[in-house]
Amino acid sequence: MATSSRLSRSSRSISSVEALRSGKADLSTAAPEFGRHSIAGVAEQAGVSVATVSRVLNGHDNVRPATRDRVLAAIKASGYRVNELARNLRTAESHLLLTMVPDIGNPFYAEILRGIDSVAHEHGYFMLLCDTGADLGRERSYFDLLRQHRADGAICLDPAAIHQALAEDSDTLPWVACCEFDTSVGVPYVGIDNYTAAGDAVRHLLARGHRRIGLINSADSYLYAQHRELGYLGALCAAGIAPDPRWRMTVTNLDYAAGGAAATALMQLADPPDAVFAVSDTLAIGVIAGLREAGWRVPDDIAVVGFDDISLAAQVDPPLTTIAQPMRELGETAARLLLQRLANPHASVPGVLLPHRLVVRKSA
Amino acid sequence: MATSSRLSRSSRSISSVEALRSGKADLSTAAPEFGRHSIAGVAEQAGVSVATVSRVLNGHDNVRPATRDRVLAAIKASGYRVNELARNLRTAESHLLLTMVPDIGNPFYAEILRGIDSVAHEHGYFMLLCDTGADLGRERSYFDLLRQHRADGAICLDPAAIHQALAEDSDTLPWVACCEFDTSVGVPYVGIDNYTAAGDAVRHLLARGHRRIGLINSADSYLYAQHRELGYLGALCAAGIAPDPRWRMTVTNLDYAAGGAAATALMQLADPPDAVFAVSDTLAIGVIAGLREAGWRVPDDIAVVGFDDISLAAQVDPPLTTIAQPMRELGETAARLLLQRLANPHASVPGVLLPHRLVVRKSA
DNA sequence: TTGAAAGCGCTAACAC
DNA sequence: GTGTTAGCGCTTTCAA
After folding, report:
1. Pick from A90, A110, A139: which residue ends a domain?
2. How far apart are CA A182 and CA B162, in angstroms?
């Protein structure tokens, strides 16, 4: 294929471009008759029993080298692959880890997912990813995957699930919470100290001389939103400032547009803030865009602090000052907690708080 | 465990953070004993045979209503859930669709993923997401999931796989290509006409009076990169312009940083371009950031056109002019093609090209 | 060291 | 309409 794919590039490309234009390339597909062999076939071919093949397959050492070689040869010759479905049924595990994320599109989750994925692979697991859209119904159906034994355990990054945890049997299921968590439920979790982190953001603003500090927050049904609001309030109070309640905006979505809309609303107040703390970088980036559109300069007219430190934060204009969460580590830890719980269902699994840090750039 | 996990947070967190960081948490495997009931238990409880329970479970209509009710009651009372592992073994399908994406972090893929997910769910499938990191080895191991019957089919968004397709048996496996595809291979695909799309981008720049147009492209091992380069070249030639080869930059990564670096390099030429076409929005956003850092104004000093139209494109400063791909539809179509292929392995599945469009904003 | 055989939990013939 | 039963492909005692 190396050679055939290296046919004069231009000629091939052009013809294929033409084929593409028409959009009509017909692809008569051959029958995918994959995996016809079973362990019995291999056994027969190697002149041994299925038990022996199984032993070889699983690397048991009680097989004579000569026998092993014969089996290995038969496997190779037949192109045999283990049917994991059968193996899973037998061993009662799927080696799949369910990950529920509220919004795949939010770059905040991408790095967390990578962390989960890497640890999962290290331990022979695959990640079954589900976008819940923060919808309770869908979430519930995803938990069913656990009940149906289609996944061995779950990592939930989705706030909506947490509250459900108490009400249903989901607390008997093998899952852990990541980022959004309730320490008072018996579910293992990993996250950061949202209260302190939000306080850090606000204290930074305070240190820069801002006194009129707005907050753009998620609905307080989210625990992290509650904690960040408390952190915001706490820092302000400690500085002897009574925050204007009109400066607290609630959004139902963390996307760019929501940030822009909230910022616009904020600046239309008779008495607008001179700084804003948004509880997500995506929100903050939307805020900056909205502000710019309305003719305000950041940080001169109004300072902006975000939360998360997604890779984009450094790229926008002005680069975003934000609270960094250790995203990759958050994901890795969540996966380890879950694996730990699976390995030892009766042991108590700890809750973990990871450190955050303030990253000062130009927006505040 | 609820109580034992309620130990003072600080002390617990610290020790566990250390254990987890080390990655050495020991994971001796024990049997997770959830879901103790089987279909036999339900049958017994309802005073019927397992076959009848199975019939009820699968909604067959040859069951007397009274019997059905009895079974349903028994199911409810026992909290029984189907063991999908067993069902899958029996029916030889997992109802899992594998999706291979080169980089979860690239927002371009997020909307495609949503499209896939929605169609998959509509048809009772779940999406098993794998980040290949554009790595051939990992990709290969993901294809193994198909061979092992752990997934029924796959959607591959990853360039690296395409070339592999010819060389290995992967062309007998049930998969489809999305976004990156080779019309000359017998694999169903969906994508856009990259040649024309790139041409449209360049013609827009031409129409705005630019003549010195640079290109920031992926390595030409990618088919889409080849086609876009051809489109770029074609449009330039048609306008009677001989493009300076030094204005063509190749990046090995589509992230923001790569765009910034390429832009910087471009502008250090003795004779820099006055416009740049980047083959990805993430790249283009990095270009803008890099340019700004170096003191260039967009679009006054240099115009920038991107590709994809991710949601962020409208948020950056200046808002990005770009080629929009119908991302959601791309994903939906890919899923449909795959489902179609699964439903009818012998039918020929078409290749599909979806329309793109130029979105003019302020960067060019 | 190897084999025979019993299931894992389910579906689908095939009987009644 | 309902029950009996034979597997799906594998792992794992238990014997030999």
Report:
1. A90
2. 45
* Preceding amide of B318 cis, omega within 30: yes
Burial zone of A134 (CB within 10 Å; 0-12 exposed, 13-18 middle, 19+ buried): buried
Nucleotides of D under 7 A from a protein CB: 1-5, 7-13
A18 compared with A332, residue with greater pLDDT: A332
Search chain B and give the residue with CA nearest A352. B13
Is residue A121 domain-shared with residue A179, that is, in the same domain?
yes
Residue A60 lies in a domain: yes
Q: Where are the beta strands (DSSP E) in B3-161?
A: 96-101, 126-131, 153-156
Nucleotides of C under 7 A from a protein CB: 1-5, 7-13
pTM value? 0.86
A357: three-class secondary structure by DSSP = strand
The two structure tokens encoding residue A353: 């708080």
For the purposes of burial, counting CB atoms within 10 Å of the CB of B198, is it exposed (0-12), middle (13-18) or buried (19 or more)? buried
Residue with tokens 């390339």: A25
**Residue A6 included in any domain:** yes
- The pLDDT tens digits for A173-208 are 899 999 999 998 889 999 999 999 999 999 999 999
Kindly state whether residue A27 falls inside one of the protein's structural domains. yes
Q: Is the CB of A65 under 7 A from strand C?
A: no
Packing angle, helices B39-46 and B50-57, rounded to 10 = 110
CATH for B46: 1.10.260.40
Q: Tell me the pLDDT tens digit for each residue of B12-41.
A: 333 333 443 333 333 322 233 333 589 999
B198 shares its domain with B320: yes
Q: Would you say residue A142 has pLDDT above 60?
A: yes
How many Å is the Cα radius of gyration of chain A? 27
What distances in angstroms separate CA A149 from CA A144, A221, B151, one per listed residue? 8, 30, 15
pLDDT of residue B4: 30
Sign of the four-CA dihedral B358, B361, B363, B364: positive
